UniProtKB/TrEMBL annotation:
Protein name in the entry: Glycosyltransferase RgtA/B/C/D-like domain-containing protein
Transmembrane parts of this sequence: 12-30, 42-59, 114-132, 144-160, 197-223, 235-254, 304-322, 334-351, 357-375
Keywords, in A-Z order: Membrane, Transmembrane, Transmembrane helix
Length: 541
């Protein structure tokens, strides 16, 4: 099948479909009464089906991004856990709600592979973009709204790096858009529903800590709308609802006498990651410099034209507003300032950690389209049509480039070694036996279908020198003693592990070395990978 879909004639056929459909949508923008047999609903359905179909065709059953393997390992572990709630909260790297869709699949007996995980991400994208389209339709004509929604659909159909794979930004965006959908109608909501919206926003730190700046902006929008409606009695409900998730989890962890884990896993670690130089050498000035922003947006040939089209149009619209302000209606001004602040907060969230991971850029998709829609709603129809068509042409050019250069995902040079290790893991353990990896090779959990024996899918947080290392070391040894994972696999080799270094060998950490020596025995060496099995006496003790 891979030979067929990546053959040039087939790729050109896919490109022809996308060009043809883009032409139809663009024509509808110019002449809304054209193609009368295609109703608005049909246009939406066909657009999403094209997106889903192309992504299914090109979804590889291979790791596109190591983070996907991390979330698959979490879901697998939750699915096999005797206490799924505790496991989801503690074995998800502080992002339990982000991986909840995958965990549900495993809990109901659907074993995940990379292709199915990608499909779940695609369906979440469709839900998010459909909801977002319903928001934009309140301010723009339907054909213009669909053209704007088609832009990310078109791009995401044709990218194949970590920008496309399942990651926490997918669930994070869905959570934000669902929250925004409720906030836009918050004036008419009863108090209990206002509290529910606040609760939804308060859950954002447990979806992905990076969404907090955007959640604060959304919360302030809710406060503003309630203030405008003079519903002062509902303001405490919004605030209490927002605080409730943290309060409930604090009570949960206090009941388990484990508040240190709650603070360390959910907050302390991400503060260090985002606001110090322990994981990035960039200073605050360098992280937020205009030069870095431009380089970050344009550093990959797979999506640079997309951002040129979107942000080029936004800059043109802002320039036109400065020259001749046309934001007259109060609600237009409100949407404009909200969209602008939301976009700034999203840029802050993307840039703050100082890492140029392309999947972070997914948080810019919705605020940029929202601000663009606000600007378009203030222009004459003819100007709006031209702006949308120019962007559509730019993104279509990007999709065409990707279509032409699309190639099968490279097979990792260590793939034969991965397979041999996975086979040995399966041979020496049962499906419910825990697995601990000393190194950064999360895919071995997915390949071997063995759950995590430690609350992270790899030991990176334990051996990497940061200010939280002592806490992580204590947590690591505690998990090993409590879970008694059957296998401890030393994969600290640059052939297959990220951040591999001799300085990170487990023998260089006396506490780990002593624990492994006491409770485990070496049973197999495959090239430079060592597999340790827990001693029989150590399993029962």
């Amino acid at each position: 099948m891979e030979t067929v879909v990546y053959a040039l004639p087939f790729r050109l056929f896919i490109g022809f479909l996308l060009v043809g459909w883009s032409f139809i949508l663009g024509w509808k923008v110019l002449f809304r009464d054209s193609f009368p047999n295609l109703s608005g609903r049909a246009l939406w359905v066909i657009s999403f089906l094209l997106f889903i179909g192309i992504r299914i065709l090109y979804a590889p059953d291979r790791e596109q991004n190591i983070d996907t393997s991390t979330w698959m390992a979490t879901a697998l572990t939750v699915g096999k856990a005797s206490d799924p709630l505790y496991t989801l909260l503690n074995y998800s790297d502080g992002r339990p709600l982000a991986v909840l869709p995958l965990a549900i699949a495993e809990l109901i007996g659907i074993p995940l592979d990379y292709r199915l995980t990608d499909l779940i991400g695609v369906l979440l994208w469709c839900i998010t973009l459909w909801l977002f389209g319903r928001i934009l339709k309140k301010y723009l004509a339907e054909e213009m709204t669909l053209a704007l929604i088609w832009l990310p659909l078109l791009l995401l159909s044709m990218v194949w790096n970590d920008f496309a794979s399942f990651n926490t930004e997918v669930t994070g965006n869905l959570w934000l858009i669902l929250g925004l959908s409720g906030l836009l109608r918050i004036r008419e909501k009863p108090v209990w529903a206002v509290a529910g919206i606040g609760f939804w926003l308060g859950c954002l730190p447990f979806v992905k800590f990076q969404t907090v700046p955007m959640g604060v902006v959304l919360g302030l929008l809710g406060v503003w709308k309630l203030y405008q409606a003079r519903r002062f009695s509902a303001l405490p409900a919004l605030l209490i609802g927002a605080l409730l998730p943290v309060l409930l989890l604090t009570a949960y962890y206090a009941g388990k006498n484990d508040l240190d884990s709650f603070w360390g896993d959910y907050f302390s670690n991400y503060f260090v990651y985002s606001y110090t130089t322990e994981y990035s050498d960039l200073s605050p000035g360098e992280r937020f410099s205009p030069v870095r922003i431009v380089r970050y947006l344009l550093h990959s040939y797979q999506f640079f034209l997309y951002w040129i089209g979107i942000f080029g149009a936004i800059l043109v619209g802002l320039f036109m507003q400065i020259r001749r302000p046309v934001l007259v209606a109060t609600d237009q001004k409100e949407r404009f300032w909200f969209g602008l602040i939301w976009l700034v907060a999203s840029f802050y969230a993307v840039l703050q950690a100082g890492n140029n991971y392309t999947h972070y850029l997914l948080f810019l998709v919705f605020p940029s389209l929202f601000l663009l829609s606000v600007l378009c709603s203030t222009f004459d129809v003819a100007i709006t049509q031209k702006i949308i068509l120019v962007i559509l042409g730019t993104v279509l050019a990007q999709a065409s480039i990707n279509c032409f250069f699309r190639k099968p995902l490279d097979i990792h040079p260590g793939e034969p070694l991965f397979q041999r290790i996975s086979a040995e893991i399966q041979n020496r353990s049962q499906p419910d036996d825990g697995l601990v990896l000393w190194g950064y090779v999360d895919r071995l959990h997915a390949y071997s279908r063995r759950p995590m024996g430690y609350r992270n899918s790899n030991a990176f947080w334990v051996y990497y020198p940061t200010s939280t290392q002592a806490f992580r070391m204590k947590e690591f040894l505690s998990d090993l003693e409590q879970n008694k994972p059957r296998l401890f696999v030393d994969v600290m080799t640059p052939r297959i592990s990220m951040f591999a270094d001799k300085a990170y060998q487990f023998e260089n950490y006396p506490l780990v070395k002593n624990y492994i020596s006491q409770h485990y025995q070496l049973v197999k060496t495959i090239e430079d990978v060592r597999i340790f099995e827990r001693k029989p006496a150590a399993i029962t003790n």
